Amino acid sequence: MKPRGPLMIEHRLIEKMIGIIEKKIPQIRKLKKIEPSFIDSVVDFMQTYTDKIHHGKEEDIYFRVCANKNMNSQESELLSELIEEHELSRKVIDAIVQNKDKNLEDEGVFELIVGKLHSLVKIYRDHIDKEDHLFFPESEKYLSEIEQTKMLEEFLDFDKKVIHEKYRLVVEDLAKQSL
């Protein structure tokens, strides 16, 4: 398997979540109600799975290796664009987090969150397409078999560490709160 394989498998799950969000937006608008549990699930998925796990592997491993290659200017620009889109998605999620505990019936808060949900759909539809169909296939020509194998090994190590780190932080936060 090539390194893009696990990343593209993760893309399919992210696309499913994006599809759920996309279907939920009209329901939210029709009912004029945002379920806090839905927002909490979206935030948790986007922060943990999409950002820490998926973007973590892309940025810390795949993109890092590619950035050290002598890619042409178009490929280098695409890499920068993909990283900027990761940052943009973080900002969108941060805005949701900053507002999710406010009065969700307030029209301004309601519209802000619904707008941010819509932004996530747009960002990820385009972003995943760029990675799957442009960047991954083009960048592979710069990667030796040994580098690709090493990346796959790093992906496995990365995944093992992330879940332990997440729940170590949960316990630390709870411990601080109980003091």
Low-confidence stretches: none
Instruction: Note the run of SSEs as H and E.
Output: HHHHH
The helix content, as a percent range, equals over 70%
- End-to-end CA span: 48 Å
List how many beta strands DSSP finds. 0
Largest sheet: none
Total DSSP helices: 5
Assembly of the depicted chains: single chain
Strand content: under 5%
Q: Mean of the pLDDT scores?
A: 93
Structural class of the helices, strands and pairings?
mainly alpha
Q: What spatial form do the alpha-carbon principal axes imply?
A: globular
CA-based gyration radius: 18 Å
What does this molecule look like?
Helices cover 85% and strands 0% of the residues. Helix 1 runs antiparallel to helix 4 (107-139), helix 2 (36-67) packs antiparallel against helix 3 and helix 2 (36-67) packs antiparallel against helix 5 (145-177). The protein is an all-alpha fold and 179 residues long. The chain is globular, with a radius of gyration of 18 Å.
